[in-house]
Amino acid sequence: MIISKKLRKIALVAISMMAVTPVAAQDLLANQAPIDRKMKAVDAMMLQQLLETEEQASPAADLYKDWDNQYAHRPTALPDSFRIDLRDFCMPTPSRVITSNFGARWGRQHKGLDIKVYIGDTIRAAFPGKIRIVRYEPKGYGNYVVIRHPNGLETIYGHMSKHLVKENQDVRAGEPIGLGGNTGRSTGSHLHFETRLCGVALNPALMFDFRNQDVIGDSYLFRKSTYGSESAQATRLRGVPGSSAAPDRLDNGNKQRASSKKAAQPSVRYHKVRKGETLSAIARKHKTSVSAICKLNRIKQNVVLRPGQILKYN
Questions:
Q1: Which residues pair with 162 in a beta bridge?
Q2: Where is 224: in which H helix or E strand?
Q3: Does residue 130 contact residue 148 with C-beta atoms inside 8 Å?
Q4: Which of 27, 99, 214, 226 sits a CA distance of 20 to 30 A from 84?
Q5: 114 beta partners
Q6: What is the reported pLDDT for 220?
Q7: At 55, phi and psi to the nearest 5?
Q8: Residue of 133, 91, 89, 128 lying closest to 113 (CA atoms)
Q9: Contact 208, 157 (CB under 8 A)
Q10: Measured CA distances, 152 to 85, 89, 163, 239, 311 (Å)
Q11: Rounded Cα–Cα distance for residues 5 and 12 (Å)
């Protein structure tokens, strides 16, 4: 009997505790609710601040409304002016030799600079950013990479022999992205380097000084109203003197002297090796000797020629 009373007592206590627990839990939740609302408000404010900070640090967020991995460039409206941050840069190649300027060339617009590199040379990202396109275009860029940078620019690297990155990959300035080559529409191993703003090609010489392996300053202020004259001046200062893509502002006397000087100097000619060609066949084609070709190119007569290889023949 005593045991039965004790069991009933224990059962009553257990039931009372079960009834009290939900109430206590409900009270705890009720007390916590105002704190949760406050934290939610704080989190929203912090998120807004983070977004504002990110926008200030990444002007590209306002310039580009989408992320397209299909097209290398689709021009959109340019702002009247835009300051491009050039800090935290890396020269895409240590080569100081520009072989072709930005501008009119062979009856069409050349949208970048051609920099002399050799097959296998390391090509690096000019600024930190995100890889937008990694592709091969046989009649144009060959193996190329497009990077979108937080400073608002997109840079394009063309004619490479090999890709070293993947689409949507984040890269740091100076990180290897590919190897120099001669792929696509190319007449010799080089890097075709473009700088674009809103898909519109800007003269890289406005920002990059390949001869001195440096940028022109901490920033470049793009202005629609003065871009044309600034681009021409940049080409005169940092481009190839006398290149067909460079502005020609010589007076008549200087033109005559330049042309006579050019005529006095024998022009170097090149041959692009085709599959199966030999040194003797190339020598016969250009009416020269194998030894002369070897001397010009510093190669031996038993060298194995590669398709696409560029050889001097005079």
A1: 179
A2: none
A3: yes
A4: 99
A5: 100, 192
A6: 96
A7: -65, -40
A8: 91
A9: no
A10: 8, 13, 23, 24, 40
A11: 11
pLDDT given at position 242: 62
Cβ atoms of 193 and 115 closer than 8 Å: yes
Asked if the model's pLDDT at residue 249 lies above 50, the reply is: no
The answer to whether the beta carbons of residues 101 and 223 sit under 8 Å apart is no
- pLDDT of 305 > 90? The answer is no
Distance in angstroms (rounded) separating the CA atoms of residues 234 and 216: 10
Q: Are 249 and 229 in contact (CB under 8 A)?
A: no
Model pLDDT for residues 187-202, shown as the tens digit of each residue: 899 999 999 999 999 9
Confidence band of 265 (pLDDT split at 50, 70, 90)? very low
| Residues 56, 45: Cα–Cα separation, whole Å | 17
**Closest-CA residue to 221 (of 200, 197, 239, 237):** 197
Tokens of 11: 């059962």
Q: How many percent of the chain have pLDDT more than 90? A: 48
Looking only at the bridges linking them, the beta strands covering 129-137 and 122-124 are unpaired
Distance CA(220)–CA(205), nearest Å, equals: 11
In the chain, % of residues over pLDDT 70: 73
Most trustworthy range by pLDDT among 117-121, 244-248, 257-261, 267-271? 117-121
Token couple for 178 = 């590919």
The helix or strand, by DSSP H or E, that contains position 289, with its residue range, turns out to be: none
Q: Where are the alpha helices (DSSP H) in the chain?
A: 2-57, 60-63, 227-238, 252-264, 279-285, 290-297
Phi, psi of 237 (to 5 degrees): -80, -40
Burial 31-58 (b: 16+ CB within 10 A, else e): eeeeeeeeeeeeeeeeeeeeeeeeeeeb
**pLDDT for res 63:** 87
**How far apart are alpha carbons 260 and 264 in whole angstroms?**
6
